[in-house]
Amino acid sequence: MSEDAASETDVQTSEKLVELAKRRGYFFQSSGAYGGVGGFYTFGPQGAALKGNVEDAWRDRFAVAEGNMEIDAPTIMPEPVFEASGHLDTFDDMLVDCPECGESHRADHVVEDNTEYEDAESLPIPEVEEVIAEYELICPSCSAGLAGQAVETFNLMFATNIGPGDSDPGYMRPETAQGIFVEFPRLKEYARNQLPFGVTQIGRAYRNEISPRRSIIRTREFTQAELEYFIDPEEDDPDLESVADVDVTLYPAREQNTEGSSEIETTIGEAVEAGIIGDEWVAYFLGIAKPWYESVGVDMDRFRFRQHLSGERSHYAADCWDAEGKIDGNWIELAGFANRTDYDLSKHDEYSDDRFTIFRQYDEPKTVERATVDPDMSYLGPEFGGDAQTVVDELETLAERDRSAFDGETVEVELEGETHELPVEKTGFSVDEETIAGEHITPHVIEPSFGVDRLVYTVLHHAYREDEVAGEERTYLDLEPEVAPTFVGVFPLQSDEDLEAVADEIVADLRDAGLSVTYDDSGNIGRRYRRQDEVGTPFCVTVDYETIEEEETTVTVRERDTTDQKRLPVEDLDETLAEIRDGDLEFSDI
Ligand code: GAP
Predict the structure, then answer these.
(1) In what order do the strands lie in the sheet with 444-451?
(2) CB of 174 closer than 6 A to ligand 1?
(3) Domain boundary residue, one of 123, 154, 185
(4) Which atom of ligand 1 is nearest to the CA of 175?
(5) Total domain count for the chain?
(6) What are its GO biological-process terms (predicted)?
(7) What residue's CA is closest to ligand 1, atom 11?
(8) pLDDT of residue 2
(9) What is the mean pLDDT of residues 106-132?
(10) Which domain holds residue 428?
(11) 228 CA distance to ligand 1 middle (Å)
């Protein structure tokens, strides 16, 4: 199949999936009774269960299995947090307004969708304006020409006021990460002041996207699962050995910039050795993420890691790779893996009253020279009056930073823009030897940041199947048992008290065994199977007359994908199904 034909089929799949999602309770646009509002979606009963299972699987892998801590911080944070983080100044998208219909569009998307530019986000605004004019690009809503329209920046944060009045501005957090960074002074205590350590958070983030699109792929309120891993960049190394053999498809920046080049198939170990992934910590988390994505049902033939181009990186990132899944013939970003360096902690250290450093203990105490001052206040007092203490502070800073300033007979200090000369002998300047056990450092942060909603969409899209069963067309979702909203459906064959009583007992037993079960007694059995197939329930159990009439109590168990059926004893049904769910038994091996 050609690439175009493949993406056309994919688009059809998306249309059918969105219809199925609404009909079967996966997701649908919120506030529909009031006309709906762009960029907000509700997860229905199936969707909320699937999303919850994906989040649990993420928690198991990235928090529990890695020994990291999980927190749950507020979604509204005060303005100074975002002044410090840089979001207030730089968390912008490019906006272009249509002169005819007044609709606002993301200028970089208009360019990417209609020209050969793949990464218009990294272009400077004047260049985007030039491209719009050169290609005579038009408004996606009403087709009016956009040439000559100003492209402007638009800050994506939702603003609010904390309490009555407008004296305390706040913002809905645009990433869960800041909720972790601002608590670093307390979190380091829980980690007993030892690096490295990781803190995770799964929660809502808010971005006032200019043009939310493609159902839950780009929304204004979405869930992130983020890990902030704090390291000492000079001392800490990841356990690369444990992920060295993980196969990966990589699309490095160099290949993206070279015409005719495409993705490369390699392993994490080889990629690090060849310098393709420059940051070992980022490589480590890519190595963990790849098998995890596979375990929740992302199709590995439609999955890759792509390195950010230099203009594309966020204001805080030194290097960044995205996990991408292919949907509708396009690659979409599922997660970002960034080295945020000491950017965030340094900024919060600078802007707040707390300290965002950690004490690095040396293996052996070190002897160092320390320059200090002990000024003669009987001289400074009369000389500088109320400013004497400021002069002391200036001298202390100068001694620390530039001891050569004290080499001559006099030393210069700045006071409110004026330079004053003091005799060095009045400063009590001296250089002494001191033994120190360590130093305060600002940790660096490695951040795997997952979008949950996009992942749920990708899992559903990659699981969507159509086939024919007994001459009838069937749609089913080939969801992994670990994440399927319901693991087993239980049906009495007909409306009959005896069959229903046994079915009720089976439901109770299976629920006791920790399985998620749905009971369905409406419609013919074929329709009930189709209903469960469509929501991706891996197994169905039917209680029929053989169950209640034969000496050994058995039921029919049907597997979703193959539609194979087996008669299994009720006695150990809970154990058998639990083993299958946990991956310890295959249905075909029973
Ligand atoms: N703390 C880093 C950070 O927020 P990001 O790349 O902006 O990085 C991380 O976001 C992930 O969040 C993305 O990879 C994507 O999966 C998801 N995401 C971002 N914006 C989104 C939106 N408007 N709708 C749905 N998911 C979004």
Answers:
(1) 69-70, 197-206, 221-231, 444-451, 330-341, 319-327, 303-307, 247-251, 264-267
(2) no
(3) 154
(4) 4
(5) 4
(6) glycyl-tRNA aminoacylation
(7) 451
(8) 45
(9) 91
(10) 364-439
(11) 15
